[in-house]
Design goal:
Blueprint (H helix, E strand, L loop, with lengths): L2 E3 L42 E8 L7 E7 L6 E6 L15 H12 L2 E6 L12 H17 L11 E6 L1 H10 L8 E7 L19 H7 L1 H10 L6 H7 L11 E5 L8 E2 L2 E3 H6 L1 H14 L3 E2 L6 H9 L2
Parallel strand pairs: 1-10, 4-5, 4-6, 6-7, 7-8, 8-11
Antiparallel strand pairs: 2-3, 3-5, 9-10
């Protein structure tokens, strides 16, 4: 029987920037609330406007936090998605002490942050991973629709996420229907596709059907992941790397798990399976193939990448 281990990594980096909107509509600095939410005490040691649990959709977890500089117009907005294997985690994970200085540094450059929750595959009304991914689309549309109120310049979005959140950022960032305002994607601890059978091409010891047949818990999660049924049509839609082309937002990818054996004895190592450098290698090779600009930690840090794609 295969046993699962791995504490899923929940980290995040982000950023964005540039120009102001000349709309005559009220701006966020001129109104006492945003969609009925008044500013709360900041979770960071920064002078910011913090709007907690703004509703962006109709589902239970359709909430986001807006962290906005308390001066001047925005230079851009980072839409941030937490990790958690599409089963757990929350936006609050990103307010831990280890992230305070990064978030504060972004805000000091007049960059806003939309830090979002999204639906899980384990919820009773879930359509599997599509619920999570489409929540990402809804968040992007919510920010775009409120661009004037936020004083947000056009074409100044960055999608960023960790693990599952990185997948939400890439799935939306590589789709023409969602990426017209997006300049960059930051994908940390990322997967390369959500057609899980594609992963057998990278990991010689990974046989998905064998694992599913041996472990009922994995089989149950597999069915939840695909909303009750795996089909070629779903697999094609979830293989987001096939959507990559030269006109997509620039990509930053970083997977620091330098192992490629996912099974050790009878143990399935989810950290390797989900976050191995092999996923990042595939994404980089695909970017080279289609002519998409990409970067990573050996070229620059994520915040430098964001500054470059949005300001320089």
């Amino acid at each position: 029987m295969i046993k699962i281990f791995a504490s899923l990594l929940i980290i995040a980096l982000f950023s964005a920037c540039s120009v102001s909107d000349s709309s005559t509509e009220p701006t966020i600095s001129e109104v006492p609330s945003f969609f009925g939410i008044t500013p709360s005490d900041s979770p960071l040691e920064s002078d910011i406007l913090y709007f907690k649990d703004v509703t962006y959709g109709n589902k239970k977890r359709n909430k986001l936090d807006l962290l906005l500089p308390n001066r001047g117009a925005l230079n851009g907005m980072v839409i941030l998605f937490h990790g958690g294997s599409f089963q757990f985690g929350s936006k609050e994970d990103l307010y831990d002490e280890g992230f305070n200085s990064i978030l504060s540094g972004i805000l000091e450059n007049n960059i806003g942050i939309a830090n979002a929750n999204y639906s899980f595959i384990t919820e009773t009304d879930s359509k599997g991973i599509f619920s999570s991914l489409n929540d990402g689309s809804e968040i992007i549309n919510f920010i775009r629709k409120n661009r004037a109120v936020l004083e947000l310049p056009s074409d100044k979005l960055v999608l960023a996420g960790v693990s599952a959140g990185a997948g939400i950022a890439m799935w939306n960032g590589f789709r023409e229907s969602d990426n017209d305002q997006v300049e960059g994607i930051v994908a940390l601890y990322a997967q390369s596709s959500y057609d899980l059978y594609e992963w057998q091409n990278y990991f010689a010891d990974f046989d998905l059907d064998s694992i599913r047949s041996q472990d009922s818990e994995i089989q149950d999660l597999f069915m939840k992941f695909y909303g009750g049924e795996y089909t070629p049509q779903k697999a094609a839609e979830l293989n987001f790397s096939d959507q990559m082309d030269a006109n997509d937002p620039k990509l930053y990818v970083y997977n620091p798990v330098y192992e490629d054996e996912v099974i050790n004895g009878d143990t399935l190592n989810l950290d390797v399976l989900f976050h191995s450098y092999k996923h990042a290698d595939f994404l980089r090779s695909k970017a080279v193939e289609v002519g998409l600009e990409f970067s990573g930690v050996y070229q620059e840090l994520p915040d430098a990448f964001v500054k470059r794609v949005l300001i320089d």
